[in-house]
Amino acid sequence: MSGHGRYVPKSRLGRIVNSFEENAIALLLGLMVTLTFVNVVARYVFNSTVIWGLEATLVLFAWLVLFGVSYAVKIGAHLGVDALLNAVSSPVRRLLALASALAFLAYTLLLLKGAWDFWAPFANLPPTTGRWFPTGFEDMKPWDYRGYVPVETIPIPEFMRPFLEWLLLFEGDEPFEKLPIVIPYMIVPVGVALLLFRVIQATVRLMRGEINSMIASHEAEDAVEELSARSSGEG
Questions:
Q1: 212, 93 in Cβ contact below 8 A?
Q2: 4: number of Cβ within 10 Å
Q3: Most CB atoms closer than 10 Å: which of 19, 84, 201, 225?
């Protein structure tokens, strides 16, 4: 039996997040394919190359992976070990599933703190205080700000320049040419925040009895066994 059916969000927030997530994944895939194709044509047909193409593709792939983590929670595609769950009664199985969901939730909260603390200085924002859970924000001194930290090759799209100068409080005289690293790294807190949202959703569905697990089911294995048995019978 599948742990997750096809998830259809009921709330307006759920529909908005669902649409954002699926459109972002589709856009990232499309951009990766297009950029790779253009680079191949430029190299083998025009004996040229898009210098920043490789780095941009790596950034897009990293974004795709982190969006995919939360998306996999939504559709129940994460793998897990269910040998113990299958060996106990249904009430105990439900209790263990809830315990694992709460552990997952606590882990994701810790991960979100770490994600923010990693990204914030690149955006000239203060990281959180507290060793495990956030207890506030640090007082940042002027010398704590990292200012403009560029990527290696990706140029700044002109339409983003005013926003980036405002975001990074950039007042230097040197040209603002390469994309600030704060933009590629933004997926770290955004991806973990989406993951937290999906874990909360899955935990609520688990408590309501709408799903019985947060991990992938054995439907694929059952289908392979059924196909194998059918092939043997026909032979």
A1: yes
A2: 20
A3: 201
